[in-house]
Design a protein that fits this description.
With about 325 residues, the chain is of the alpha+beta class. It has one domain: Aminohydrolase, N-terminal nucleophile (Ntn) domain (Glutamine Phosphoribosylpyrophosphate, subunit 1, domain 1, 4-Layer Sandwich), CATH 3.60.20. It is about 20% helix and about 30% strand. α1 packs across α7. The longest helix has 13 residues.
Length: about 325
């Protein structure tokens, strides 16, 4: 299983380094869920570094920098990234444990940069920066959506090709309900870099946390937040593992006449689907026994049998 982690940064923290420390610590902890490759994506950009004035907003289209490579997150991360990390409103991180797609192909490493069905060269063609933990029936997804040719060979890319064209929660949940397999997902429209989409479909875990500075974080394992709190200057006020079938959009809420703050911008639920072969103890790699037991008790996905073989050509509901 792969590791997901990241942050939507509050512009009002007196020290942006606290959230940056959390992000780097989460990346180190996420190595337990994958060392085939790792990466991070820095999106947007604040006009200043620390001490930003209260009414300041991110620069429009403030940029996107994706850094990734083979091996551990600790091998990809460099301290020279810290100034840019401190000023990025949104940062995505990923550690890969490959299930589909060669580890030697750079296009298979996350975070991915994926164009939707319209393509990047046409008006309205969305491009998303994204990360996936899980393993899904990519052939089945392609049979349901008119997707463009893929740049890589992962099952993750077609998911985000389909999601890139979504205009609202109902479109998003339509794609999420079409997934068959394990999936926790994080993606950002490159043209809207302060809004992050989070979804937990079947099995693959995803946890959301908020600290006292109003930074919003996500990670694959709730234990990581407990460990980070012990070893950094950050205190978390909320740590919640998402239930299967949950979609959230989080980001900077613009409120006329008031300060912009990170918040939940939209929510929706959907029915996730797993294959009968998807239940695997490795889903909870790194979990404590109590966290795993609690999560297993709340599973609510439907299950399909796969008598047609690995291509998923014949599915029946169990």
């Amino acid at each position: 299983m792969c590791g997901l982690f990241g942050v939507v940064r509050s512009p009002f923290a007196d020290d942006p380094g606290r959230a940056s420390d959390v992000f780097v610590a989460l990346g180190a902890l996420a190595e337990e869920r994958g060392t085939d490759s790792a990466g991070l994506a820095l999106l947007g950009g604040w006009p200043g570094l620390a001490g930003r004035p209260g009414g300041e907003r991110p620069e429009p289209g403030g940029g996107c920098r994706v850094v990734k490579g083979r091996g551990r997150f600790s091998g990809v991360w460099r301290s020279e990234f810290l100034p840019e990390l401190d000023r990025a409103p949104v940062v995505l991180g990923h550690t890969r444990w490959a299930t589909q797609g060669s580890t030697a192909e750079p296009n298979n490493a996350g975070p991915l940069v994926v164009a939707g069905a319209d393509g990047p060269s046409t008006t309205g063609g969305a491009i998303v920066v994204a990360a996936h933990n899980g393993d899904i029936d990519a052939a089945g997804l392609r049979s349901r959506f008119p997707l463009p040719p893929a740049a890589g060979t992962t099952d993750s890319e077609p998911i985000f090709q389909a999601l890139a064209g979504c205009e609202g929660p109902s479109d998003v949940t339509g794609v999420l309900e079409a997934l068959v397999g394990r999936a926790a997902l994080v993606w950002v429209d490159r043209d809207r870099p302060t809004e992050v989409h989070l979804a937990r479909a079947a099995l693959s875990p995803l946890t959301v946390a908020v600290d006292t500075d109003q930074n919003i974080y996500w990670a694959s394992n709730p234990r990581w937040f407990r460990e980070v709190q012990e070893h950094t200057r950050v205190t978390f006020v909320t740590v919640v593992m998402l239930r299967e079938g949950t979609y959230l959009k989080v980001g900077m809420e613009h409120r006329p006449g008031r300060r912009d703050v990170p918040d939940v911008l939209a929510t929706a639920t959907f029915l996730p689907t797993a294959r009968d072969t998807d239940m695997d103890d490795r889903v909870w790699t790194g979990f404590t026994a109590d966290d795993e037991e609690c999560d297993r008790a709340g599973l609510l996905h439907r299950v399909v049998n796969r008598p047609g073989g690995p291509d998923g050509s014949v599915l029946s509901v169990a």
